[in-house]
Amino acid sequence: MRMPMPMVLRQQAQASADAVLQNSMPLLVISAIAAILMFCVGVYGIYAYVEVVWASLHYGDLPCDEPLSSYWLLTLAVASVATALKAFNVLRLCLDPQTADGVISSFINFLSTLVQVTCLQWLFASKTCSETNPVLFYAVTRLVYWQLFYLFVMAFLLGIIALALRRLVMAGVLGGSEGAGCAEKVKDMKHVPLTDNELMDPDDNKPRECVICMSDLSTKVGKEVVKTNCEHYYHESCLTSWCAKHTSCPICRESLEETGGGSSV
Ligand SMILES: [Zn+2]
Ligand SMILES: [Zn+2]
């Protein structure tokens, strides 16, 4: 059962999310730039491919000492084979799905790398094509270099974006099961009997309050009270609900995931 969260706690949770967001700002800005770059790199790739198709169709009959005008067909063939293999992955019949997909992906990567390396070799071996058929030669050169660039840059940019997404999940901005460990720890915390004097506030000798549900700890009969390592008290069910979205103590922000068995007696 989920407890309604009092306003003050909601504000605290928001403040801590804001703090994490603020710390992650440089990374978020970098990853936004990375995403824009990825988009531009992708758009340029489409442009480069269209340019090669156009050059092959329009200038394909001009002499070229290497079969550059067939490169777009080879690329298209590899893409078609890749799509077909993914759609009709017969390996799934005899292997477990993950291994089958892995084998297919590796094969497709091998095939496309082979085609790219072959074309790169054509470009290096070509002696006259840059003069006899410059439009085709430079269009294919741009496409092949883009493909190689793409492999390395994408891996790098995706890494940055993955890091930023992780930060957002930690800040509670995006979903995630960050609180799973926290909820697990609540069970191991020290349980305090409802009649224990510990539950009385020494300042005014009134029962302490569970700040999550805003009711007295000792008056809710039948509800278990737990004590965190940071010496704060909550109803067990309240803290478990809190852990669904947070990993730190609602009062002092100390990590609840590291709370062992409620060390103090
Ligand atoms: Zn409570
Ligand atoms: Zn605390």
From TrEMBL:
SMART domains reported in the protein's UniProt record: RING
Membrane-spanning regions, if any? 27-50, 70-91, 103-124, 144-165
Alphabetical GO biological process terms: protein ubiquitination
Citing just one GO molecular function, the answer is: zinc ion binding
InterPro entries in UniProt: Znf_RING (IPR001841), Znf_RING/FYVE/PHD (IPR013083)
Chain ranges of the RING-type domain: 210-253
Keywords assigned by UniProt?
Membrane, Metal-binding, Transmembrane, Transmembrane helix, Zinc, Zinc-finger
Q: What protein is this chain from?
A: RING-type domain-containing protein
Q: Identify the Pfam families for this entry.
A: zf-RING_2 (PF13639)
